[in-house]
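Researcher: We plan to redesign the surface later, but first we want a full-length starting point. Tokens attached.
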């Protein structure tokens, strides 16, 4: 008798010592139907539902390859190292044969044995065996780790590498463009990336990330083995990750670096000189522009971009035949220089084209002025290339905005209701009994100048009542730092950690170890941080997280919506804010015995017309605007937690 989804799910839940959750069962059965009927499904599964098993069980039983795409490395690691192995162990009691699974990342996430053994090109394109100083020590450690991984048959991926910086990792890895290719690399048989691709070809479940999925399905570049069914976890992030994957940059320093790398590999070195001249021309042109969105490409800017495009094309054509190595062996320095020049050509050409579907803007980075280009709207591409060709299940704890799946569905290109089904399986938590949503209605509307004395005083009073135990989510780094400084002075007995004081994993560890601690930070804390228990009984959100008015991409999207006759503010800015608010508020209740308060210091949530839309996107916490009630609740929670801790 063939086991059912429920049979395998029950075995898996029992194996990890869990209990059956109605939402998890409903999700598994809905995912199975979506696979069978080849109909798209959106599943909102609240924290504690066990949504990973909810889609992994039907994926295991599907009989055909299923790609599982996540937004974050944390979830990818959880699936590959914990959830899937546990499920497969449990499934062996009900299945005759348990399917194989694999993880597949972008090539730059794996160590490159050619670069490890031959060295990395410097800015002049010369292979350097080991850099000097601290960087050199890290590179040596990474090379030893990579050789050991090759000897032992390990994955060689970055997650398992010793501690390192981004700069040192670049010394032992390559991008897809820089790769010599399996047919030309002398170490292809041992190659970590190639072995991962081969492993994925034999797998029924392939775990990857949103960017890889976008490149494979939308750009048409074969990154994944053939598949017809995909589960997208953390689906509220999909549009942003697809946009990020399609965003490109161009700056004079990068052009000059490519020219230096190319010079020694060209038949006619003057082509590199021309590319350097193009870098100077672009640098001069950018100094006459204001940072921000570029609605109309001026003639000087267009000419400068075309100059970069044309000189990069000539430079690319000037690369001679392979040289410098044994017959038939590729030259890695030449390959890297060639790929850099070709990428410059493509980016400059895209920017000069000035497509109505792209937004172009000028930013001011640490290394100087930089042009960036991104697609304004990815919904059409997702509709045509992903939803039009695959069966897609999207899941997240946050897929309904304003109480409806429609906003998220439309943003992803699912415009016709008959194309998809929405299912909210709820959460096992009783939010109304476990937590309070407090809106500080008495405070003034937040201004553009950041936190004022009223907000800082409110933060201090709430933190004091909670005895620390506070996660502060701020709309800007400056706001987080100012609040941290203020609370440190006002409450010297409370330890306040602030994003930037150390690496985020270290800060999260210190926050969890000492309950009487606060952790203040910005966007990376709003999502994906899991801090259950007495560590976090108060979540403070300083303001509704609308995008900045001068955000080039968001403002371009608002204008496009309005041009099509829609409400740009509601469909873009309010949509963005609702997603972040829901994610931020979701940091509070992470398990059945959690208790606490989410405090939003922005009165617009209850006074503005759009406030009801935002509020409907939040967990069903008990709601109040009375500060005395909240302060009393926090004090009682602190007393109870202190008693448990023996303080």
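Model: Full-length starting sequence:
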């Amino acid at each position: 008798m063939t086991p059912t989804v429920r049979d395998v799910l029950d075995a898996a839940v029992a194996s990890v010592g869990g209990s059956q959750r109605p939402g998890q069962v409903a999700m598994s059965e809905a995912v199975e139907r979506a696979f069978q009927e080849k109909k798209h499904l959106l599943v909102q599964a609240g924290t504690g539902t066990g949504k990973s098993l909810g889609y992994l069980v039907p994926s295991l039983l599907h009989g055909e390859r299923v790609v599982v795409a996540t937004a974050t490395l944390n979830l990818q690691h959880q699936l590959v190292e914990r959830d899937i192995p546990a499920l497969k162990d449990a499934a062996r009691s009900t299945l005759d044969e348990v399917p194989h699974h694999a993880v597949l990342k972008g090539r730059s996430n794996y160590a490159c044995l050619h670069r490890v053994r031959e060295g990395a090109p410097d800015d002049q394109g010369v292979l350097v065996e080991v850099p000097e100083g601290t960087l050199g020590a890290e590179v040596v450690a990474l090379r030893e780790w990579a050789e050991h991984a090759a000897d032992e048959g390990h994955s060689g991926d970055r997650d398992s590498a010793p501690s390192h910086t981004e700069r040192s990792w670049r010394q032992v890895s390559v991008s897809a463009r820089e790769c010599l290719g399996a047919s030309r690399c002398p170490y292809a048989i041992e190659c970590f990336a190639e072995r991962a691709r081969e492993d994925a070809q034999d797998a029924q479940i392939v775990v990857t990330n949103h960017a890889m999925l976008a490149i494979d399905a939308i750009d048409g570049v074969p990154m994944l083995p053939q598949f017809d069914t995909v589960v997208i976890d953390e689906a509220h992030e999909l549009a942003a990750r697809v946009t990020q994957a399609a965003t490109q940059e161009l700056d004079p320093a990068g052009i000059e670096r490519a020219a230096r790398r190319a010079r020694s590999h060209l038949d006619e070195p003057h082509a590199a000189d021309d590319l350097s001249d193009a870098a100077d021309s672009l640098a001069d042109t950018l100094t006459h522009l204001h940072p921000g969105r570029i609605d109309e490409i001026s003639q000087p800017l267009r000419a400068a971009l075309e100059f970069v495009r044309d000189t990069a094309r000539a430079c690319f054509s000037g690369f001679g035949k392979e040289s410098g190595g044994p017959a038939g062996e590729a030259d890695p320095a030449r390959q890297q220089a060639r790929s850099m020049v070709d990428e410059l050509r493509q980016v400059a050409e895209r920017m000069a084209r000035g497509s109505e579907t792209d937004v172009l803007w000028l930013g001011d980075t640490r290394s100087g002025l930089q042009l960036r280009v991104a697609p304004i709207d990815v919904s059409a591409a997702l509709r045509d290339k992903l939803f039009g060709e695959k069966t897609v299940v999207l899941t997240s704890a946050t897929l309904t905005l304003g109480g409806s799946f429609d906003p998220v569905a439309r943003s992803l290109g699912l415009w016709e209701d008959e194309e998809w089904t929405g299912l909210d399986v709820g959460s096992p938590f009783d939010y109304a009994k476990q937590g309070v949503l407090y809106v500080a209605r008495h405070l003034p509307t937040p201004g553009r100048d950041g936190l004022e004395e009223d907000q800082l005083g409110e933060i201090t009073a709430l933190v004091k009542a909670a005895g620390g135990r506070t996660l502060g989510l701020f709309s800007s780094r400056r706001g987080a730092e100012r609040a941290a400084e203020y609370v440190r002075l006002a409450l010297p007995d409370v330890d306040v950690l602030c994003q930037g004081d150390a690496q985020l994993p270290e800060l999260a560890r210190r926050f969890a170890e000492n309950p009487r601690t606060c952790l203040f930070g910005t966007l990376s804390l709003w999502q994906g941080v899991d801090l259950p228990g007495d560590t976090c009984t108060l979540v403070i959100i300083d303001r509704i997280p609308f995008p900045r008015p001068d955000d080039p991409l968001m403002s371009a999207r608002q204008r496009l919506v309005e041009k099509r006759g829609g409400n740009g503010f509601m469909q873009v800015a309010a949509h963005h804010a609702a997603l972040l608010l829901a994610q931020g508020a979701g940091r509070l209740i992470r398990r059945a015995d959690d208790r606490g308060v989410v405090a939003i210091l922005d009165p617009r949530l209850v006074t503005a017309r759009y406030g009801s839309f935002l509020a409907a996107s939040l967990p069903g916490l008990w709601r109040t605007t009375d500060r005395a009630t909240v302060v009393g609740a926090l004090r009682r929670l602190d007393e109870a937690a202190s008693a448990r801790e023996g303080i």
